[in-house]
Design brief:
Blueprint: H1 2-28, E1 30-36, H2 41-55, E2 59-65, H3 74-83, E3 90-92, H4 96-103, H5 111-116, H6 119-122, H7 125-130, E4 132-133, E5 136-137, E6 140-146, E7 149-153, H8 154-160, H9 168-180, E8 184-186, H10 192-205, H11 208-216, H12 226-237, H13 251-259, E9 263-267, H14 271-278, E10 287-291, E11 299-308, H15 316-326, H16 329-339, H17 355-365, E12 371-373, H18 383-398, H19 404-417
Parallel strand pairs: 1-2, 1-3, 8-9, 11-12
Antiparallel strand pairs: 3-11, 4-5, 6-11, 7-9, 7-10
The structure holds beta-D-galactopyranose (GAL).
C-alpha cells in the first residue's frame, strides 16, 4: 500500500510538472532548429544577426551547422535526418532544391506570410519565381550572390602598376609579372565545387547563350560546341597561375592569401567580400571587386533561401515569424552587407550599399537578359546532374591526360541521360 501511494504520488507530481513546465516554456520561448552550412567568420556574423533579430520576436534560433563549402554535405545530412524522422524545423535550401523538396510535399507552404507581406510586390520578379512551385511559396529569400565576381588585392595591383583585367587575355598578360614578383596571380583551391565555380564563369565568358543551352536547357548539341572545349582548356591552363601545389583547401584559405597579399586575384561568389570585410579590409581601399574576366554584362547568380520543414505543426507560428523577418527591409540591408550578397527586394535601401553591392544589385535588377542562373550553386538544373557535371569538370582539371573531346562527350552524356524535371 505504502509502495502504491508513493508510486501514485510520483506520477501525479510528474504530470503537474509536465503541464506547468510545458506551458511555461511555450509561453516564454519557442525555438527553431536551423540546418545550414554557414561557418566562416562573415557567415557566422550574418547568422548571428538573424538569430538576434529572431530572438527579439521571442523565437530562439538553434544552430544545426553542417560545415561544408557551398552546402555539399548539408543535403545529405538533411535527407538522412528526414528519413530518421528527425527533421529540423528550418533548412537552408537553395534554388532548384526548393522545388524538388516542395514537389515531395515536405515543405511548409508560406502563402499566407507572402500574401500578408505583399511579397509579389516586394521581391525582384526572378527571386519571387525561384521560391515558388506550382503557384505556392516554399522559401524565404535572404540575399542574391553574384558568382562571376573577381576580387583583387588593390594595394598589390597599385604597387606593381597593374590594371585589373577585364578579359582572360588581359589576365594572361599581367599574370607572368605577378609570378615574377613571387605572387600567386589567382587564388584557387582544387576542391570540386570551387573548381567548377571558376569553370562556370569561364563558360559564361564564352557566351551567355552557350551557358544557357548547356546548363539550363541541357541541349545535347551544345556539348559539342567548340566554345565548351575552349572553356575546358582555359580552366586547365589556368592551373599555371594558381599556387603550386594547388591544395584542396577551404575557400576561406584563399581569401586569406588574397588579404595577406600572397595572391593577387580570386574568382568566386561575392561571399568573399563578406569575408574580406570580416577581416577588417575595406572595399575600394584594400580590395576591389570586378566581374570575372569576360563576363561584365552578366550576373551569374544564386539566391540563399530558408525553407520550413512541414512536419512540425507546433512550430508553425515561429517558422512564419522567421519567414516574415527575412524580408524586413532593415534585416535585408544589414544581413546582406555582412554576407556579401545583395537584397532580394525590388526597392531596397541603397544608402548602406558599397560599390560592389550597388553594381551587383543594379545589374541583377536590370532584368532577365543580364541574369544567368548558376549551375554549381543550384539555380540551373537538378542536383544529380549538377553533381555529375562538377565531378567530370574536376576530373578534367586534375588529369592533364583526359582529351578535351572526351570530357565534352562525357558531359553531353550526363546532360542527355537524366530526365529533365523542370
Ligand atoms: C553558396 C552560398 C553562400 C556561401 C557559399 C560558400 O552556395 O550561397 O551563401 O555560403 O556557398 O559556402
Amino acid at each position: 500500500m505504502k509502495h502504491i501511494d508513493h508510486h501514485i504520488l510520483r506520477k501525479a507530481l510528474a504530470a503537474v510538472c509536465l503541464a506547468a513546465c510545458a506551458g511555461g516554456v511555450a509561453a516564454r520561448e519557442q525555438s527553431l532548429q536551423v540546418l545550414h552550412w554557414w561557418k566562416s567568420a562573415s557567415e557566422r556574423q550574418a547568422v548571428g544577426m538573424i538569430a538576434r533579430r529572431l530572438g527579439e520576436h521571442d523565437v530562439r534560433w538553434r544552430d544545426a551547422l553542417v560545415p561544408s563549402g557551398s552546402g555539399v554535405g548539408a543535403g545529405i545530412v538533411l535527407r538522412s535526418r528526414m528519413l530518421a524522422k528527425d527533421a529540423p524545423e528550418v533548412a537552408q535550401l537553395n534554388g532548384i532544391v526548393v522545388r524538388d523538396w516542395a514537389r515531395l510535399g515536405l515543405l511548409l507552404e508560406l502563402d499566407a506570410v507572402a500574401a500578408a507581406g505583399k511579397w509579389d510586390k516586394l521581391l525582384l520578379p526572378t527571386v519571387a519565381a525561384t521560391i515558388k512551385h506550382d503557384g505556392h511559396v516554399y522559401a524565404a529569400p535572404l540575399g542574391i550572390h553574384r558568382i562571376n565576381s573577381m576580387f583583387y588585392n588593390r594595394q598589390l595591383m597599385l604597387r606593381l602598376g597593374l590594371a585589373v583585367p577585364a578579359t582572360w587575355a588581359e589576365f594572361e598578360r599581367i599574370a607572368p609579372r605577378l609570378q615574377r614578383a613571387g605572387i600567386v596571380p589567382l587564388a584557387q583551391s582544387s576542391e570540386p565545387w570551387q573548381v567548377a565555380t571558376l569553370f562556370e564563369t569561364m563558360v559564361l565568358a564564352e557566351g551567355a547563350d552557350l551557358y544557357r543551352s548547356l546548363f539550363h536547357r541541357r541541349d545535347a548539341a551544345a556539348y559539342a560546341d567548340p566554345r565548351l572545349g575552349a572553356a575546358l582548356l582555359r580552366l586547365r591552363s589556368a592551373k599555371r597561375w594558381m599556387g603550386s601545389p594547388i591544395r584542396e583547401s577551404n575557400w576561406v584559405d584563399s581569401v586569406r592569401e588574397l588579404a595577406e597579399g600572397r595572391a593577387a586575384m580570386m574568382v568566386m561568389g561575392d561571399w568573399v567580400k563578406g569575408e574580406l570585410l570580416a577581416r577588417g579590409l575595406a572595399v575600394d581601399e584594400d580590395f576591389g571587386c570586378a566581374a570575372a574576366p569576360g563576363t561584365g554584362r552578366y550576373h551569374l547568380y544564386n539566391v540563399d533561401t530558408l525553407s520550413m520543414l512541414g512536419a512540425h505543426a507546433e512550430a508553425r507560428a515561429a517558422q512564419e515569424k522567421l519567414a516574415a523577418l527575412a524580408l524586413s527591409p532593415s534585416l535585408q540591408a544589414d544581413y546582406n552587407m555582412i554576407k556579401g550578397s545583395v537584397p532580394v527586394l525590388a526597392n531596397p535601401a541603397r544608402a548602406k550599399m558599397d560599390a560592389c553591392a550597388r553594381a551587383s544589385w543594379q545589374l541583377f535588377s536590370s532584368g532577365t537578359a543580364a541574369q544567368v542562373p548558376s549551375l554549381v550553386h543550384r539555380m540551373a538544373t537538378d542536383e544529380i546532374v549538377r553533381d555529375a557535371i562538377v565531378a567530370e569538370v574536376h576530373r578534367f582539371f586534375l588529369n592533364d591526360s583526359v582529351p578535351v573531346e572526351d570530357a565534352q562527350r562525357r558531359l553531353g552524356t550526363i546532360a542527355r541521360t537524366y530526365i529533365k524535371t523542370q
